[in-house]
Amino acid sequence: MDVNHLIADIHAKLPSLNTGKVADYIPELGKVSPDKFGVHAMTIDGRAFSFGDAQEGFSIQSIAKVLTLTMAYQRLGHDLWKRVDVEPSGTPFNSLIQLESDRGIPRNPMMNAGALVVCDVLLDYLANPKADLLEFVQSLSCDVTIGYNETVAASERAHSDRNRALVEFMRSFGNIKNGTDSILDFYCSLCALEMNCAQLSNTFLFLANKGFSPICRKQIITGNMTKRINAIMQLCGLYDEAGEFAFRVGLPGKSGVGGGIVAVLPGDYAIAVWSPPLNRKGNSHFGMAFLEQFTTRVGGSIF
Ligand code: GLN
User: Fold this and answer.
1) Which domain, by its residues, includes 274?
2) DSSP 142-193
3) Is residue 156 in contact with ligand 1, taking CB distance under 6 Å?
């Protein structure tokens, strides 16, 4: 099958690109052109397929939560699940609502509350959290050009009232240890990691390969831990649209409000797609439509 041709054909047949809305609650994200569209797929045996703006960097936002989760899981092991649960929430990514009845334990590490707890955990373990995360991502992708977009990070820091509320609320239940400003500072940086589709698919390839990265040739986590992270992505990676994503795409995936989605087919490939306009659930409208067509026409999904 000519996958490059298939990707171009799916793109050509997507309905017009004026559906959805680019995120602007973080003002800096609102400046990105809605017409951008990139795809990059990388297989575990080294084949790459690319289309459109696949080499242009964008703000990966919540996609980074999978990478910090991996780092925290490496360090804390099973004890991590005492601080954050592994259940789908069925609520928007920034929801506070279940935290009260769940007594400050977030439903999962993919929603903001859970990712903020993961940041709190990492602050206890990492000497230089931002530098250490960047080094981890650069080693996974074998690419030292990856960095933080400081303008985006500053923009989110200036508009983080809701995330601050999440941290303080969880602190009231004893599930936060570090200072709120240092947690938010780290969180806003990881969301502001800037990567392109090629770098993203390379970075996530270890999740398609039982925890061994074919890019940096290192075992990042065990096969069992990989199974668990993929399960979390499948059930929680697209928040209250995780069911729809499983139904239409059928792969573990993670979205970000920058318009990126990464998905993996274990034993086969990682794919990243970028299209900034978001649907009502905060996920890339055309990213989902593209991936639905891709897995349908290639005939590969975990189901
Ligand atoms: N930085 C964003 C926020 O906290 C991440 C959300 C997302 O990508 N879904 O609101």
Assistant:
1) 3-297
2) T-TT-EE-HHHHHHHHTT-HHHHHHHHHHHHTT---S-HHHHHHHHHHHHTE
3) yes
